[in-house]
Amino acid sequence: MSALRIKKGSTSHSAYNLRPTFSDVQERHTLALLVENEAGVLARVIGLFSGRGYNIESLTVAEVDHDNALSRITVVTVGTPQVIEQIKAQLGRIVPVRDVHDLTVEGPAVERELALIKVSGAGDKRIEALRLAEIFRANVVDSTLESFVFEMTGASDKIDAFCELMRPLGLQEIARTGVAAMSRGSA
Known about the structure:
- The protein is built from four helices and nine strands.
- The protein is an alpha+beta fold.
């Protein structure tokens, strides 16, 4: 009987060091879908996610081509590379879905989100909220003696950071549109 000898420290022939094709690391992906603008399409897309236990971090939908009755759905989701591939494949099989793009892997993309943030406070907290709003380029769209409503557009992490700074100053309410995204360049 012959035994296979492997030099100590060598991993090239060990069955214990085989690496899987996909990672178990969770990744955030932005998917852009072009769909037929008809009743039930959004429910089918959402049903695909909920039926398989996939989470949706952000979802935006709007008609983009009235003449051809097409809408664009932008979905931000998190999963392992295997799960993301499954999601894209399953979305592509839904009949009213015309096109599926993973903007995260297809090249540079622009992502923006709009948020309305209500902050109440008086005195120094009110002054500090206005100072921070100026730094973050948030616009005051409503003001009373007790509160402000700020409008902010930008990347999701910028909005998150602004909201965290507003918490101790009197953050009352947040309304967010979700991510709108588009690939950069001519293609």
